[in-house]
Design goal:
Number of helices: 4
Structural class: alpha+beta
Shape: globular
Radius of gyration: 18 Å
Low-confidence stretches: none
Strand order of the largest sheet: 4-6-5
Mean pLDDT: 84
């Protein structure tokens, strides 16, 4: 049970991780992913990145960082173009409502809750100030 801004109780029914920030490790596995765009492609360059290895296969490589590709972001850019992240953030509240959800949870893409179009819940960390 949650409390709305007016202090009224309501039952929160939402999703965590409404975001585009989930990259896939592609280092040493590029052949698994046919047709990845070139790293310098103007639309998809933002989909390439690097991350600390979290899965056992990548930990055995002994590298501090591995190459990644963000397929979720790539699909959004493919559908909506270079302004896809903003369009996605604008569409998500309407989509979530249509699916019967009334809140967006932790680890959601910041643009999705900063636009204040949909109730959200985040973790409070005493070590750093909230958004």
């Amino acid at each position: 049970v949650s409390v709305d801004p007016a202090g009224k109780l309501f039952c929160s029914h939402g999703l965590d991780c409404v975001n585009t920030l989930i990259p896939t490790g592609v280092e040493n596995r590029e052949h698994y992913f046919e047709g990845l765009p070139a790293k310098d492609d103007p639309l998809f360059a933002a989909c390439y990145g690097r991350a600390e290895p979290r899965h056992s296969y990548y930990k055995t490589l002994g590298k501090k960082y591995i190459s990644t590709y963000n397929f979720c972001l790539a699909n959004i850019l493919r559908k909506y173009g270079s302004d896809g992240k903003r369009i996605y953030a604008d569409l998500m509240p309407r989509r979530l409502r249509s699916w019967g959800f009334n809140t967006m949870g932790n680890w959601s893409f910041p643009e999705n809750y900063r636009n204040k179009k949909f109730p959200y819940a985040i973790s409070l960390n005493p070590q750093r100030p909230p958004i």
